[in-house]
Amino acid sequence: AELATTTSKKTFVCDGSQWRVKNELDEKYGTCTKTVMGKGVVKEENGSEHYKCDYLDKQEKYEWVSTAKVDFDLRKACHYGYVNEKVVTESGYEYVCEENSEYTDNDGNHIHEWRELSFEDIYGKCDEDKMKNQTKVAVYEGIKYKCNYISGGYSGGYSWVKASDLDENVTLGICTRNRKKDAAIVGDAYYECLNNGNAEGIPVSSSSTDWLEIDENEYLNAKFGYCDTDRGNTKNIADIKSETLKDGESHSFKCSIAKEVEYGNGKWVDASTDIALNQICNRDNEDATVTKESVIYVCAYKDGSSMYQWITSDEYCENKGENLTY
Predict the structure, then answer these.
(1) How many angstroms separate the CA atoms of 121 and 311, rounded?
(2) pTM of the predicted model as reported, rounded to 2 decimal places
(3) d(Cα 86, Cα 29) in Å, to the nearest integer?
(4) If residue 140 lies in a helix (H) or strand (E), which one and from where to where?
(5) Is the pLDDT of residue 228 over 80?
């Protein structure tokens, strides 16, 4: 309850700090006290003037004072008891309540005011540690960003760049330079963290990294390393690789290179028959045969998709139109 006493000329109120003269604004909005200040109420006068209840630290009293429209817009007064607190608007703008250390009012009281936070106020400077340790994208004014290394051009270095929806995917995480060649499956698609010279907002001739959709063989290259002439054909059963694909099943693969390729790429292809026959079919043993359970299998170049595979002698003769010597 408001405590007041009246002399022949003035009314005094106890505002929780001291007895002071009750003024016109107290009459209009109610007595300014510590409790009222804590509610952060902002009053508008004639659509252009705004008042808040604040603590005047020099004069050691609570009083209605003029304030900026931003307090009214944020629906929360920045006051003595709210310093360092933050609010976020529906549009994503973030403000912090600060005590102005440089300016005071005419009576020497510190002023409390909202300051809109800059991007780096909120998320800090982008550097190598930030890039490697970030766990979620930064959102500023409704736009998503990630800390990444930009390569090429005159503006190479660590910088905040725009992030994609894929960077928020739980399976993928954020694609950054230190994660290049990481690959994963989301739904029915394969993705790899790759250089992207077309990333939005980066300088011409520069490159960021983003999740890009790839095909199955590119996915296997990312998981196993490139199947090429430097690696060579898979020669031993023990060197067959296994990986789960988008069908949710684990599959076995071997590196197979076409005979005419002297320097270049091959392809990761199915190795299930090689495992069943306990022998690898590749370009080095083309036309070799192996018999299992009275069935003859021939090592043959099947097509550009399957490369070298064990096929039955009947299939071999049907496709090749040749007799077998074994």
Answers:
(1) 65
(2) 0.75
(3) 26
(4) strand 138-140
(5) yes
